[in-house]
Structure prediction request, 79 residues.
Amino acid sequence: MSAALDMLVVYARPLDYPDHHVVRRWRVMAGNPAPQAAGDALLFESLAAARAWITGLQLGLVCVQRDPADDPAIVEVWG
Prediction:
């Protein structure tokens, strides 16, 4: 059995959706440090709306601020 960590990554106006905030799910598998896309992009009109959707899931996710080395469109990561 492989352990996996799912993360929700929030983007502000990425190149593929320049008029939206986007939430994408990424999965990191044990033994493979490269995250894999694990779902479709969810589009939101604002950062507040994206955060409300995430917190509304009631999964106890914690927000982690972006790393300076992240893509500039990444706002934060929830995991």
Notes: The CA atoms of residues 6 and 27 lie 4 Å apart. The first helix runs from residue 47 to 56. The chain has a mean pLDDT of 93.
